[in-house]
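Notes on consecutive records. When two proteins share a document, each keeps its own sequence and its own token line. Never mix them. Below: protein one.
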Amino acid sequence: MNRNIFRKYDIRGVFPDDLDDSTVMTIGRAMADLAGPGGLLAVGRDCRLSGEYLFGLLARGAASGRVRIADMGVQTTPMTYFGAHHLLSEATVMITGSHNPPEYNGFKIMKGLHTLSGDEIAALADTPEPPSSDLPEIKTVNILESYLDRLRSEFCLERSLKVVVDAGNGTGGIPACRILTELGCRVVPLFCEPDGRFPGHHPDPTVEENLVDLKKAVLAEGADIGLAFDGDADRLGVVDERGRTVFGDRILTVLARALLESSPGATVISEVKASRVFYDQVAAAGGRPIMSATGHSLIKQRMLDENALLAGEMSGHIFYRDRYYGYDDALYASLRLLEIIAESGGSMSDLLSDIPELESTPELREDCPDALKFRIVEAVRNRISAEYPTNCIDGVRIDFPDGWGLLRASNTQPVLVMRFEAGSREALDSYERTVRKAIEEARRELDVQTDDRGHRAKDS
């Protein structure tokens, strides 16, 4: 078993190299232990080609734990979270590779309504391998209508909006097009047919090249907004009516200001990649902004700890505990955004017009082996903290004289993640050069250290 697949927020690896039969059956037995004898284990999956096979292995592994199994079928991750609330399952699993390439898959796990993270996930690797078992009796449960009923009960848009929906051939297109049409929107679908090969484009709305078709369609159709979902529809990307990308922290700022009108003083959480403008805007609107470490399971727990009503990440995960359950649901967040636009009588760009916009980069990613990435971040932190103030709640966020820079190790991919913000383009470029230089120096230093032990870090 490759223990590196047991990550901070979920289990994720390449099928079948990492997710082999024995490993997945062991994970299934661990899920049965979470549910307990006679408990209900509810399972959903995205449209990746390996999903059905992995579900079978998971169910066979769980069989020895004498649990009841509910197969929710192909759906979004938020629908699976909804299923945990709707079915009151003792344990719930979403089989998904999220925004990773097609050869990846993985498992997001809940015990009751608590999302597992960190040591809780790591401990699952110690589960004994279950005995070989036939596929147990499985009950098929379709929760789509119940999920849509929940959305129908809450939203009634004050005017019709034209919306382009790019689901990236993930699972978000079907529920999104249905509810938006029912709410009176004029919907233009792009890549809304689920296809685990993702033929349209890779389903990651944080990457600009994946938004090219959406931007063109918004302009060609004269649409009010473009919405993009990742493969399992727990992350949202937005393009305004002018065809411009709206970064996640600016989406969250719009949502937070609207929330604070109805809930003065509310706590709103974002993470280390978010602009300082977001934190300033929430405070100016009378809210209580909090900076958290990145990660859907970490933020959900922080929301409970701080009694926060709203949270969000640069990556497009948006969490509502106001009128909703507190998990990340791209479709629900989309409807809250459309509600704000419809009530305002203006456009998305109007809502953004008075939010200051500093010079900034999107998320920048640099390939780095899992075995090396955290060590590089630590080395850069040690090098830079002697010269600049730093915040180390997740990676290292560096306070420069006229802005900030962030370096952190991704918990889901073998990459380093960076972002920069500054008052001028010159300062922005300077801060990025400073951090990239420190990364290169750290790589060289770690190469020398690993050479001394007979292993080169870059080959690990």
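Protein two starts on the next line and is unrelated to protein one.
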Amino acid sequence: MTWYLILLIVISAILVALVLIDITISLLTYHVMRQKAQQSERAYEKIKKDLGIVTDSEIEFLVHPDRFGEMLSACFAHNGFPRYRIVLLFLRLKAVIRLYKKEKILQTGAAAGALTTAGELAAEIGNIRNGVTTKPVVKTDVAFAGLQVVRLYMMGYSKKQAFAAPRFDSALRVDNALNGSFYKYQCADGRYFSAHVYYESQKAKLMKALGIETKPAEFNLDSLKGDKKVVAAAIKNYKAEDLEKLAFDCGACGCVLRTHEEWKATDFGQAVCAMPLIRTAKVGDSPKKNYGPCGSDLPLKGIKVLDLTHIIAGPACSRILAEYGADVLLVRRGKFLEQEQAMLELDGWAGKNSIQLDFNVPEQLELCKKLIKEADVVTYSYQNGALDHFGLSREAIHELNPNIIYGSLMCFSDSVWKDKPGWAPLAEDVTGLSIRNGSLKKPKNLNGVPLDYIPGFMLAIGVLNAIKSNLLHGGAYNVTGSLTRTAEWLHEVSDDEEKKVPFQTKSRIIRASLPLFEEATVAVKDTVVGPLLYPTPATVVIGLPSSVPAMAFQDGRTGFKK
């Protein structure tokens, strides 16, 4: 009897301890996320001020202690990697845990502010179309807003799906020794360099320029340990700025890791800093569009978007438009299962039907031009000038369709370095974010890829604002965003937070939840690659239907929806 009582007491003590641990974790995570909710308010107000956006909405930033547990559970679910499952699990757990740590660079708040602004503008577009003046009520879950910038790791699917193998093969190729997101190398002058070659063609060019004799196809995650030594030895032969020039000159991509002050002292940094966060220019006096009422449907219903984007940042913009009901047609070469960067692109497919076009085939190029004439919006994120020789420059697209809204993302400015390629991790490294987030000796990239997603969200805000302007005043518009300009904006809003610069807001922080936020992922069944789990959208506009059904997508289309 004595042993029974002792065992009962021990078990009870363990249960009490577990409950206390759970309560402590809930309190700590809630406290951290409430601080990030205040940062969300700051970011939201700064976005509206910097972009000159005037709105009248009820804004609520939601915080709830259950989110941490929901996200941890999602880390263990639907891990579709046939090998290296533990690697993906580690990346997921690391990303979620970092969401609940203090951020030197505001990214959760920045994402929440941007998504809230996008939702607010979408709701106003719906009001204009329906001829009503109802004040929009926009609710953003702060933790799930943070999840949006790490969503690359969080998507789920069965390893039995046909898509699982191509996506895993893509991951093997991407995570090589020249992946600057993870690996920085010291040069002959002691400064650090990061390569950013996420296409096989770029990787092959840089390997050749560095004199690395390994076959590019064999230079991947499986050979990583030895490859890192080879790369480190090759890079030691160069000064950092010479290597940066070599990388761009050979057709690849890489940069010197700079401090923020060093970045602002360069001519290309100064050109970026001189740009507005989003540049919107009215380029024609076309009449107001009449899309008709959207009724109780999503506010962008019937608005046609031709999507000429790739990888993450550009598709993040058009995905937001799709989630609010736009008819987004994604132009791609080849089938979904044949995409070279399936690892990086899966997230950007949500909500978009796709059409396969090869612009080298005259008939297919003409079909693209026909679609441009039908579209209301074109989004573009390839390297500047990449499609000019096909007659698809920005100016040519406006000639094809004088009523178009043209939204584009670049890495740098639209003057100095405008033709250079770039990626989100490079934008972190070159602007000083990586050093600020870590140190001079141990630079550290941000959590997930916020300089893909946040610039994409910012461009979506610009496009939505242009749609609103057209409905009210008419006109065609160019909307231009930049990865590095958004990086500079993150420096600015983080500086404001560090200095506790006062700001005014009418938004509210509330401890609350909504039915959509009960799980960290949502199921999207109607897709060309089979059932998928996507991270739960962070923003809900009260009165609008759920955006989850709008995340479905199919392939092999011949045009927009009828």
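For the record: The first strand starts at residue 58 and ends at 63.
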